[in-house]
Amino acid sequence: MGTRLDLALQKFPAHEEGVRLLAARDPSGNLKYLDWGAKMLAAGQALAPEVADVLDLFHRFNGQWFSGRQRGSRRRHVASATRDRIHPDLYTYRPQDFARLRDHLTKIQRAQDKKRRERERLYRIEGSIEADVVYDSPDLVVRHIQNKSASVHYGGSTKWCISMLREGYFEDYEAHNATFFFFERKMPVDDEFDKVALMIARSGETRDGENASAFNSLDQRVDMMGLARVYGGRVFDIFRAIYERSEQYPGSAIACVYAGSATQEQLEAVVESLHGDRKTATSPYEIGSTLAAICCNDAAPPALLEGIAREAVALATAAWKGWEGRRRHHLRLRGEERIKELWRVVASALVIHPQTPADLRERLIKDLRRRHVQIDQIRRESGRSGRIGVTYRKPRDMTIQRGRYRHRIRRRETPSRLRARAQGFEKAAVRTWKRLKKLEREIVAKQQKKLAKQRKQK
After folding, report:
1. Alpha-carbon distance 71 to 81, whole Å?
2. Quick count: other Cβ atoms within 10 Å of Cβ 345?
3. C-alpha 390: how far from chain center
4. pTM for the full predicted model
5. pLDDT bucket at 279, cuts 50 / 70 / 90
6. How many CB atoms lie within 10 A of CB 172?
7. Are 19 and 4 in contact (CB under 8 A)?
8. CA distance 28 to 47
9. Where are the beta strands (DSSP E) in 360-458?
10. pLDDT confidence band for 400 (50 / 70 / 90)
11. Is pLDDT larger for residue 403 or for residue 144?
């Protein structure tokens, strides 16, 4: 190392201070970039700090590919990006290549910084972490998880779906009025019981006939006796405290919306969350049912109802576009049909809502009649899952075939329409007769060839 520094000082004595700075900042550890950096100084390409910065970037990104300049296509007259590569040998770059090398390295650094920021944003927990301690001992703590941020924070390093930041599983359970309690060892032993999630289903029983389900950190089902074998007999006392807390804890805002008992503040909070869900993984089916349920709550103010009437289609369209990007392309048509059905449901709920302004109700009634919805048949009802919604008589002669709506509305018979249909039948009959005669000629020709062949054989 001393030899390389001495040689560089002998070759470039006029730049001793810059050479020593490059030697101090050389990222290779053995001054293998020093001679190249000194040449850049001597050529007057940049000052020593800038050359040192370029050397740092080169040491990080040498050999990597990046998107190069745009090249025009002669056939289609469009620009297509090429891919260039940072050469692993620094000494292939001449002094006149310094600026180009610096720009390419900076481009790679910016691209990586952008990816890092997006990754950090993707996994950054936003909002406050709301969780209460239900049980605390020297080796075990049990928390009541009250929002998604807490679920993501305390559910880290597990395979629980509710701990995924960019998925909507926690919201789905919350909409069904479930409560969550996390068991966590204060001194982990590195097994699947370091963390356990307990879900209390307050809106009904689970598929096994129980109203509570426990899962270890590997997302495997665990029964109560299994937890008792791991944590001891205190589990039964913990379960008693958990059930009491779950019964006292009020229902979530979205659960109250689906039950039809939400307050104005809860309705406004749910609508705001729907606006924030445009770029998340929230299912468009959930957005549609939520909007319909909001319009079935009597506490919804007129301003909120007018806002839903204006933005319902935009919210559903944005949700379906995001859904299509992650799913198959054929969902586009299904999304268009679902959006039309969503608007019929939302408009029907707005028509019978007592707080809907009169002018808005008149416009909605006209629109629904154009869509063949019978206004006097609109009713509120609760579905099998307990969610409030509306029902109405489907448009006349509408049938569902392979998931698509097909309108079969009979047209009024007129002489001109009957005449056009008759002409079409006549043309079809002419084509059919021509095909029949052609087929008969082919059959006769085959029979003649067969007879001629038999005569020659005789």
Report:
1. 6
2. 23
3. 28
4. 0.50
5. very low
6. 16
7. no
8. 20
9. 379-382, 388-391, 398-401, 404-407
10. very low
11. 144
